[in-house]
Design a protein that fits this description.
Kinase-like_dom_sf, about 500 residues, ATP binding, oxidoreductase, 22 helices, Probable protein kinase UbiB, about 10% strand, single chain, 3 domains, 5-stranded antiparallel β-sheet, ubiquinone, alpha+beta
C-alpha cells in the first residue's frame, strides 16, 4: 500500500514539475539539462509556487495541512512559496453521518438519541481531522459536537512516514536541503497533528482560554461540557455569530469595524503578554463576531505558549525596534539565549540595522509587525539563531491578526494600538509593580517558611562548630596529602640526581 502511495506522490510531483524546483538548485546545471532532455515534452506556464500548492491539494488533506504549516516557516521558505501555501484551505468532504454516529455510540455506549435531546445528522463543518454537528443536551443547551474522522490515525501515520522518507531524500540530493532542515520540519508537523488527534487536549485548551477571558468585553470562548467529552469527541457550547470574513453581514448587524479591528489587536497582545497562552490558528474560518460586537473564538487544536524569557524578548525587540535602538535588539537576542553568547554585538547590530532601517521609509501604520519579526529571525539565522517553534507560531498568528485588522480597517495603526500594552508590560516587569507582583508570588512560600525560621537559625548556629571542625579536618587532610606529595617529589628528584651523577662519573671517570 505504501509503495502505491509513494508512486502517486512521485507521479503528482512530476505532473506539476516539482522536480524542477530541486534540479534548479544545482549550480552546474548539468543535471537539469539531462533531466529536461528526458522530459522534453513538459511545459509549465504557472509559477512554481502555484504548482506546489496544486500538487499538495492533489495529494490530499494531510499534505494540505503540511503545506499550511510550511507557510508559517517564512524563516526557511522563499517568500513566493510561503505566500502561495498560505492560500491552502483545509476543506474536505464530510464523512458519512453513519460513521460519525458509530464513533459517538461507541464512545457513549448507547444510542445517540438517548445521549442528546436532538442531534443534527447533517454536519455544519468538515476538515481533514474532524467534523462538527449541532446538537442539544437533555437540559436543552445548544451544543456543537466535534467528532474525529474514523481511521484518520492510520492515514496520518502512513503519510507522515512518506513525508519523512521524502525529507530524508531531499536532504541527500538537494544542496539546499540541509539548510531547510526538512526532517525537523516533518517532526514538528507530526507533533501538531498528533496534538489535534486528541480532542481532550483541544477541550482543555478551550477551557483555559475561556478562564483567561472570563467576563471579557472583547472575546467570547465557548464552554466545554466535560461529561460528554473524550479523546475522539468534544462537546462545547454552540456559538451564534457572523464569520469575520463576511463584512457586509457585519455592517448589517451594526458592527463597528474600526473598533473591531482594534479589539482584535488588544485580544492578541493580552493573550501574549498577560497570559503567555495564545490561539495560534486565528484564520477567518475560526473567528466569528457576536451581535454585541465581541469576537468569538473557535477551534483550539493549535495553541502557543510563551515563558517569561520569550515575552521579555518580544517586548524588548518591538520597543527597541520602533525606537531604532538596534543595539538593544541585538542584546535582547543574546540575553534571551537565541544566539550564541560569543556573538559580537557590534556585528549583529550592524546586520539588524541594514535589514530594518529601510522599513522606516514607511509610515508606522504601514509597518507589519509580523514581517518585522520575520526580518529579525532571518537576520539572526546568520548568527546561528535556532528559531523556536513558539516564536514561529506567534509570527504566524501576528500575520493573521494584521491581515484581519487591516481588512476590517485599512487605516489600522497596529503600533499605536500595541505600544501601550508593551510599555505597560515592561513597566510591570521592571518597575514597582514587578516588586509587588514578586512579593505576591512568593508570599505563600514565605508563609510556610517563616514559622520555621527560628528553628532553622538555631540549627544553623548549632551546626556551625561541627561544620567548622569538619572543614578544618578536611583542610588538615589536604595539607598532609600535599606534604606527602612534596616528600615523594623530593625523593624522585634525589634519585634522578643520583642517577645523573653516576652516568656522568661513568662517562668522564
Amino acid at each position: 500500500m505504501r509503495l502505491f502511495r509513494l508512486a502517486k506522490i512521485v507521479s503528482v510531483s512530476l505532473r506539476f514539475g516539482l522536480d524542477r524546483m530541486v534540479l534548479d538548485a544545482d549550480a552546474s546545471g548539468r543535471l537539469a539539462r539531462i533531466w529536461h532532455l528526458v522530459y522534453f515534452w513538459r511545459g509549465f506556464s504557472e509559477p512554481r509556487a502555484v504548482r506546489l500548492r496544486r500538487a499538495l491539494e492533489s495529494l490530499g488533506p494531510i499534505f494540505v495541512k503540511f503545506g499550511q504549516m510550511l507557510s508559517t516557516r517564512r524563516d526557511l521558505l522563499p517568500t513566493d512559496l510561503a505566500d502561495e501555501l498560505a492560500l491552502l484551505q483545509d476543506r474536505v468532504p464530510p464523512f458519512p453521518t453513519e460513521q460519525a454516529l458509530a464513533v459517538l455510540e461507541g464512545f457513549y455506549g448507547k444510542p445517540i438519541d438517548t445521549v442528546f435531546d436532538d442531534f443534527e445528522r447533517t454536519p455544519v463543518a468538515s476538515a481533514s481531522v474532524a467534523q462538527v454537528h449541532f446538537a442539544r443536551l437533555p437540559d436543552g443547551t445548544e451544543v456543537a459536537v466535534k467528532v474525529l474522522r474514523p481511521g484518520i490515525e492510520r492515514v496520518i501515520e502512513h503519510d507522515l512516514a512518506l513525508l519523512d522518507a521524502a525529507a530524508l531524500l531531499l536532504e541527500k540530493i538537494w544542496p539546499e536541503g540541509r539548510r531547510l532542515k526538512p526532517r525537523e520540519v516533518v517532526a514538528e508537523f507530526s507533533k501538531y497533528l498528533h496534538d489535534e488527534l486528541d480532542l481532550m487536549r483541544e477541550a482543555a485548551n478551550c477551557s483555559q482560554l475561556r478562564r483567561n477571558f472570563k467576563d471579557s468585553s472583547l472575546l467570547i470562548v465557548p464552554e466545554v461540557y466535560w461529561d460528554w467529552c473524550g479523546r475522539k469527541v468534544m462537546v462545547m457550547e454552540r456559538m451564534h455569530g457572523v464569520p469575520i470574513s463576511q463584512t457586509p453581514a457585519l455592517l448589517a448587524q451594526g458592527t463597528d469595524l474600526t473598533a473591531l479591528s482594534r479589539a482584535g489587536v488588544e485580544i492578541f497582545f493580552t493573550q501574549v503578554f498577560r497570559d503567555g497562552f495564545f490561539h495560534a490558528d486565528m484564520h477567518p474560518g475560526n473567528i466569528f463576531v457576536h451581535q454585541d460586537g465581541r469576537y468569538i473564538a473557535l477551534d483550539f487544536g493549535i495553541m502557543g505558549t510563551l515563558n517569561e524569557v520569550d515575552k521579555s524578548y518580544l517586548a524588548q525587540n518591538f520597543l527597541a525596534f520602533f525606537q531604532r535602538d538596534y543595539r538593544r535588539v541585538a542584546l535582547a537576542h543574546i540575553e534571551a539565549g537565541w544566539v550564541p553568547a560569543k556573538t559580537r554585538v557590534d556585528e549583529f547590530e550592524a546586520a539588524i540595522r541594514t535589514v530594518c532601517e529601510p522599513i522606516f521609509d514607511k509610515p508606522l501604520k504601514d509597518i507589519s509587525f509580523g514581517k518585522t519579526l520575520l526580518r529579525l529571525f532571518q537576520t539572526a539565522r546568520r548568527f546561528e539563531m535556532e528559531v523556536q517553534p513558539q516564536l514561529v507560531l506567534l509570527q504566524k498568528t501576528l500575520l493573521n491578526i494584521e491581515g484581519l485588522g487591516r481588512q476590517l480597517d485599512p487605516e489600522l495603526d497596529l503600533w499605536k494600538t500595541a505600544k501601550p500594552f508593551l510599555e505597560r508590560w515592561m513597566d510591570e516587569q521592571i518597575g514597582w509593580r514587578a516588586l509587588v507582583h514578586g512579593v505576591k508570588e512568593e508570599a505563600p512560600a514565605w508563609a510556610g517558611t517563616l514559622p520555621q525560621l527560628p528553628r532553622l537559625v538555631h540549627q544553623a548556629l548549632s551546626d556551625a562548630p561541627r561544620q567548622q571542625a569538619a572543614q578544618q579536618q578536611r583542610l588538615d587532610q589536604l595539607a598532609a596529602g600535599q606534604r606527602q606529595q612534596g616528600w615523594l617529589l623530593a625523593l624522585v628528584g634525589a634519585a634522578a640526581a643520583a642517577v645523573l651523577a653516576l652516568e656522568l662519573y661513568r662517562l668522564f671517570g
